[in-house]
Amino acid sequence: MNTGYSECKVYEKKNLEGEDLRFEEASHLFELPLPVIGRIADVIRKRRCGELVTFVVDRNISYTNRCVSRCKFCAFYAKNNEESYVLSKEEIIIKIKEAVDVGAMQILIQGGLNPEIGIEWCEDLFSAIKREFPDVQLHSLSPPEIYFLAKNESMSIRETLDRLREAGLDSLPGGGAEILCDRVRKVISPDKISADGWLEVMEIAHGLRMKTTATMMFGHIERDEDVMEHLFRIRDLQNKTKGFTAFIPWTFQPKNTGLYEIIKEPVPVTRYLQVLAISRIVLHPVRNIQASWLTQDFDVAKLALVFGANDFGGTILEENVVTAAGKEHKPARVEDIVKAVESVGRPVAQRNTGYELLRL
Question: pLDDT digit string (tens) for 168-180?
Answer without folding.
Answer: 999 999 999 999 9
